[in-house]
Amino acid sequence: MLDALITSKTRIKLLLKFFLNSNNRDYLRGLESEFGDSSNSIRQELNKLETAGLLESNNEGNKKIFNANTKHPLFPEINSILMKFTGLDQLIIHVIDRLGDVNEVYLIGDLGRGVESELIDLVFVGNIDRDYLNQLILKAEKHIKKKIRYVYYSLEEFSNKKDKIVSEHDLLLWKAN
User: Fold this and answer.
1) At what angle do helices 28-35 and 39-51 cross, to 10 degrees?
2) CATH number reported for the structural domain that contains residue 53 in this entry
3) Contact 26, 65 (CB under 8 A)
4) Same domain (yes/no): 91, 169
5) pLDDT in tens, 126-137
6) CA distance 113 to 17
7) What H or E segment, with its residue span, contains residue 56?
8) pLDDT digits (tens, 9 = 90+) for 100-126
9) What residues make up the domain containing 117?
10) Is 124 helix (H, G, I), strand (E, B) or coil?
11) Are 176 and 103 in contact (CB under 8 A)?
12) pTM to 2 decimal places
């Protein structure tokens, strides 16, 4: 779907990397090994996105580190499009909103790092009815046509193990008010 609008596969990868999870930061050589694309095509796309103001960069030693410009007026819209493209918007509607006593939900794994994947890895935190969660996950998988792998923790379990469960690269997808 997204490739019909954006013909550059490298640009799609960069948008997923930086705009799905705005905490992601990376440099050219890191992106080259992650994407398996040539550094030239990645550099061109990074330059275009930076010139457009969608990406910011700063130098750390001899590396130019890129990240999403969250202040750009199009950031929320691009993020929303990527949530729809990955199926995460439907996951929130069909699962998280219906579970009730959920404190937090984290997107981890490839998709959490902004790498396109057919597998969605989630961590649920809260007092969750496991049987009901399983029913909702099965329905959501059929609807979004992606496999969902999940684990759940009580608030106490999670607070004791948080550093081992989630990293700075994982995306806090949902948080109770």
Assistant:
1) 120
2) 1.10.10.10
3) yes
4) yes
5) 988 888 889 988
6) 6
7) strand 55-60
8) 788 999 999 988 888 888 899 999 999
9) 87-175
10) strand
11) yes
12) 0.77
